[in-house]
């Protein structure tokens, strides 16, 4: 890309896609290297992954790559207040005296207070490390599905985000999509609402403040849903 388009201003992307799709460990360091070589900015969208849920305060820390600009929001407002912002590398930031602020919803004091309080709670209650620990527990539980049910092809885990991929060597795309939808509907009946990122997979995305007993209950409900679908298919 850089070899043919030498006037690229920035590379923008989510570090990890919904569904716990993570690139190889070498990927983002290579992107950073090319951005530096060609003078492009690296911009990370941490809206769905920031503030601890993935087992890191920001998931780009896992790849040991520092972006030039990080887009933040969602969890920053603790699901109470709509808050968004950007974190900019020191060399790119405007001088304090020049950043006067001209926009209606900029520098809202209530939103700022909610954001600061959220960060304090995340730090004081060690929620980042808790997310990593509970994520490992959940990964072990869900990995059992691959061993028990032939139509569960893969389980991915990044902190409190779990991706479950369906499929099998003897299954066509229509069958895979049908199973994914059936597991989704059965999960809702069990009190668990997954995300449907593709026709062949489901995502379980737990809140940062979830307790171990609540996670166990949710995973148990999802496992029950998979078991019900397996029985419907003659298992």
From TrEMBL:
Gene3D superfamilies: Aspartate Aminotransferase, domain 1, Type I PLP-dependent aspartate aminotransferase-like (Major domain). SUPFAM superfamilies: PLP-dependent transferases. Keywords: Aminotransferase, Pyridoxal phosphate, Transferase. It comes from the Bacteria. One of its GO terms (molecular function) is pyridoxal phosphate binding. The keyword Nucleotidyltransferase does not apply. Its EC number is 2.6.1.82. PANTHER family: AMINOTRANSFERASE (PTHR43094), AMINOTRANSFERASE CLASS-III (PTHR43094:SF1). Signal peptide: none annotated. This is Putrescine aminotransferase. The lineage of its organism: Bacteria, Pseudomonadati, Pseudomonadota, Alphaproteobacteria, Sneathiellales. Belongs to the class-III pyridoxal-phosphate-dependent aminotransferase family. Pfam families: Aminotran_3 (PF00202).
């Amino acid at each position: 890309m850089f070899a043919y388009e030498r006037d690229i201003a920035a590379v923008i992307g989510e570090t990890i896609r919904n569904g716990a799709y993570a690139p190889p460990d070498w990927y983002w360091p290579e992107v950073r290297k090319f951005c530096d070589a060609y003078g492009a900015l690296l911009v990370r969208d941490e809206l769905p992954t920031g503030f601890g849920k993935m087992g890191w305060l920001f998931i780009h820390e896992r790849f040991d790559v520092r972006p030039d600009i990080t887009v933040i929001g969602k969890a920053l407002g603790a699901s109470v207040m709509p808050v968004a912002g950007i974190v900019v590398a020191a060399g790119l930031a405007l001088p304090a005296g020049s950043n006067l602020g001209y926009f209606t919803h900029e520098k809202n004091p209530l939103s700022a207070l909610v954001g600061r309080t959220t960060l304090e709670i995340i730090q004081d209650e060690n929620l980042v490390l808790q997310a990593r620990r509970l994520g490992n527990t959940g990964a072990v539980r869900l990995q059992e599905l691959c061993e028990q049910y032939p139509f569960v092809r893969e389980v991915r885990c990044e902190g409190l985000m779990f991706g479950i991929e369906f499929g099998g060597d003897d299954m066509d795309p229509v069958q895979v999509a049908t199973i994914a939808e059936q597991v989704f509907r059965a999960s809702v009946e069990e009190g668990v609402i997954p995300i449907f990122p593709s026709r062949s997979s489901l995502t379980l995305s737990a809140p940062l403040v979830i307790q171990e007993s609540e996670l166990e209950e949710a995973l148990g409900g999802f496992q029950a849903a998979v078991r019900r679908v397996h029985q419907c298919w003659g298992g």
